[in-house]
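Record filed here:
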Amino acid sequence: SWGESLVGNFGLGLFGFVITLPGIALIFCGILAAEISPLVMALTVGVGILYLMAAIVFTTAAKQVFITGLYLDAAEKQIPQGFSAESMQAAFVKK
């Protein structure tokens, strides 16, 4: 049944990719701003890198919470607080 959780992991991975796009755009704009001013480039790239780091930490934490919730549901048959029974059952849909 763990193979069915791949859909949830894929969804979280897609979400993580989407929220990292602004950070990537900031870094790209910062590199393009190098012609304007090195200070503007450094600030923009720095903010972009900090944003990316925060997004990665957030998505990693969300993925771990999801995996832990699935484990508790599968191994101990208890629904963790903050999860609904429907969301846990939807993660293990039979093909």
Notes: Residues 38-76 form the longest helix (39 residues).
